[in-house]
Amino acid sequence: MTRPMTQVFLCAGAQEAQMAGSVERVEAAARAAGLDVKIERMPESTRTAAEAAAACGCGVAQIVKSMIFEGVESGDLKLILVSGAHDLDLDRARGLFGEDLKRADAKRIRAETGFAIGGVAPIGHLSPIATWMDATLLTHDSVRAAAGAPNALFEIGPQTLRETTGAVLFDPN
Q1: Checking DSSP bridges between strand 39-41 and strand 130-134, what pairing results, if any?
Q2: Residues 97, 134: contact at Cβ < 8 Å?
Q3: How many CB atoms lie under 10 A from the CB of residue 50?
Q4: Among 78, 88, 107, 130, which residue has the least CB neighbours within 10 Å?
Q5: How much is the pTM?
Q6: Tens digits of per-residue pLDDT, 18-35?
């Protein structure tokens, strides 16, 4: 089992991250990583993959769901980037992620990542987090990911997303 790298550019600085808003932190993380992304604020919610796809006019499979789980044995948070067309099969977690997973507490997610559920971005976390990515996302020219708020998204090439997050690929099927 390959252990994922953690994001090294998470934010410009700890104090700046604590003070900046979630969307601004994503913008700062993108700049720090050399990414030229534009964060779009949608007039409607993009909390679910279906809502995000409808708002962006793309397929639901092009939406990146940023899901945070907790390792049952380690207690570590894990960021799992999943195509909007897939669900994560927790019965396969041990084989995919090295241990069983359980849903992480919303307050802990907010405290350690800086994001509320429904707006968790794949970049800009307050603390480093091990990351995995659904390999089927690489079949698209571009994907859309949450940008720190329940109505904010950004478009990015999936290979660029993988490289930026240091994600280990996994097969969701």
Answers
A1: unpaired
A2: no
A3: 12
A4: 107
A5: 0.87
A6: 334 999 999 999 999 999
